[in-house]
Here is the input.
Amino acid sequence: MSGAPVDTPVARRAGRPRSAAVDGAILDAALALLSTEGYARMSIDGVAAAAHVSKAAIYLRYSGKADLATAALAHLREAGRPAPVGELRPDLLSELRQLRINTERVLAMSLVGTCLSEERHTPELLELFRERTMQPRRAILRELMTEGQARGEIAPDADTASAVDLFMGAYHAHYLSGDPFPDRWEERIVDAILRGLGAA
Here is the structure.
């Protein structure tokens, strides 16, 4: 796509609704740059150029790079999330596969490192990352396990809070080990967690 930016301060009138097409173009461009350049090299200028919008169009929507990057990650999580089927094991497998695919697509492990290393100097980055990526996924897992308990798929006194921690940490632990991911890795992790929850 080429030509003039599709959204400029001149083109927008006060009170005019924002363009959904521009919203999507900005988020898609941010995700593309996260996946190829990583967070440190991603810039508002680069996103504006890739999305063919003005920087003003981005700043109308986001306060800065941390706001934009974490909004793009939240968009990726929601857009790619498979619909639950109402059975705990396949629903947990779908969540773990999506977590792994999304993490590898946007180099999210390096972003985690950036969030932690910049915690003192740019605390809003880690706060937004937690708010928009970690906490929503944890809430989804808690809901799936609560529903599974209600259906009798896991023990009524199962420690689901610890299971959520194990689920969320499994990918990070294996990635940092440097070992290759074995075949059926997601199935092995989910089945180990379900055994700990007293699944039949």
